[in-house]
Amino acid sequence: MATYAIGDLQGCYDELMRLLDRIHFDPGKDHLWFAGDIVNRGPKSLQALRFIKALGKQAIVVLGNHDLHLLALSQGNTRLLDRDHSLDPVLRAKDRDELLYWLRNRPLIYHNQKEGFSLVHAGLPPQWDAQTARARAREVEKRLRGDGFPDFCLHMYGNQPVIWSDKLKGMERLRFITNCFTRLRYCNQRGRLALKEKGPPGSQPRGIMPWYAIPGRASRNDRILFGHWSTLGYLHTDNVWALDSGCLWGGKLTALKLKRDKPPKVIQLSCPGASSPKSSK
Predict the structure, then answer these.
(1) Which of 40, 115, 165, 207 lies in the 20 to 30 Å Cα band around 276?
(2) DSSP string, the chain
């Protein structure tokens, strides 16, 4: 039995199939952890969703910003349109409601005590350790899975507030939590989010840095896997592993074979594509 953590797919179903062939994936024994953004922009979001859903308990998926975008579109929020129409096949599928219900019941963070890793899509603010992050995630997950789902989808977008406070309430509180788990790349030492910065490290203004590089961050003793940052590429540093290596943009699709007491083994598949990693994700 093996466990593999896999970076952002964004509809690159064929590349996923090739990667699973390479690692000799056995759906009867092996487990796959997906770092979010299963859908959007790539050619086969519907096939990717159907395949991963069919894996049942053999697959763990955390929600990414593009997954939430699909859910928002399904509830009539067109603030960010599906400009390339890559999500149309999902929204028109005969099993649309079943797929969307499954997706909205995925977590924002997954922790596995046996393997000793936590999985998120984007990042954690420096004030939160993994245990605190799981508690904050449950607040949003409850809304996604309950009667407040349509309203959440209509008001989820926005860059405010930019810093955490226990006094935050309502949609402002939920939006901050959601932005951290699904959009965070940079912040300052106080945890002030810089959501407009999307380039690789070194391109950001003075005073902000990658979330994982904040000195003394509360999650520094937690082993964290994340995706979301295609311009960063695969990276292992500071007890974190970045898994989005830009498959959609002609980069690579990355898998880590996880073992609690050994360094993860990196497996990468080169992906044909017409463009290089962009900062517009």
Answers:
(1) 207
(2) --EEEE---TT-HHHHHHHHHHTT--TTT-EEEE-S--SSSSS-HHHHHHHHHHTGGGEEE---HHHHHHHHHHTT--SS--TT-TTHHHHT-TTHHHHHHHHHTS-SEEEETTTTEEEESS---TT--HHHHHHHHHHHHHHHHSTTHHHHHHH-------S--TT--HHHHHHHHHHHHHH--EE-TT--B-TT--S-TTSSPTT-EEGGGSTT-TTTTS-EEE---TTT-SEEETTEEE---BGGGTSEEEEEEEETTEEEEEEEEE---SS---S--
